[in-house]
Amino acid sequence: MDRDRLEPEEEASEGALAAAESFLGAITSGNGDAVWEMFSDTAQAYIINLGHERGMDFDLSSRLRTDTATEAERFEFRSDLLAGLQRDLAGVDFERLAFDSKAEPEAPMQVRVTYLVQIGPEEEQMLTAIPAGAIVLFLQDEVWKVERLIPGPGRR
User: Fold this and answer.
1) What is the CA angle 31-35-39, rounded to 5?
2) Is 48 among the domain residues?
3) Dihedral sign, CA of 39, 43, 45, 47?
4) Considering the domain boundaries, does residue 100 fall inside one?
């Protein structure tokens, strides 16, 4: 057995882990366009529908859904989304994050990446990591996409 080769589940976890780290990086850097593009098609539709349920104009939600919104409309929508995500993640020390990924056994090519905040002294052997939330990703057209962000520990 070749020890350098990863099992399919391990390979999936590695790809999803990198995508999750990029997603959180885009949120912290304030890149709303990158954040939006990292969501799966299903997640994008859900986000637009949720916005409509919370008072977004029907015509605007339709334009966002069909990608016919103006640049200004897209910018405002993505800025609002980014601000909401940043609020959801307020209090997470991004400088002290660790990650754990696990393929979801009931869903092929779906991976849950738990992000953990390392606490304790700066000495590596003394650190403890506690869950701060999770990101569920799945493979869409050979690219890992965010299906759900689950801020806070213990939520599904």
Assistant:
1) 170
2) yes
3) negative
4) yes
Query: What does the pLDDT look like over 71-105, one tens digit per residue?
Result: 999 999 999 999 999 999 988 888 888 888 887 76
Q: How far is CA 99 from the centre of its chain?
A: 13
* Beta carbons within 10 angstroms of residue 3's beta carbon: 5
CA distances from 53 to 44, 48, 49, 50, 82 (A): 14, 9, 6, 5, 18
**SS3 (DSSP) at 24:** helix
Q: Hey, how many other C-beta atoms are within 10 angstroms of the C-beta on 47?
A: 16
| Residue type, position 15, single letter | G
Tokens describing residue 108:
């092929």
| Tokens matching residue 25 | 């990086």
Q: Is the pTM of this model over 0.90?
A: no
Range of the domain at 128: 8-151
Between CA 153 and CA 117 the distance in angstroms is 11
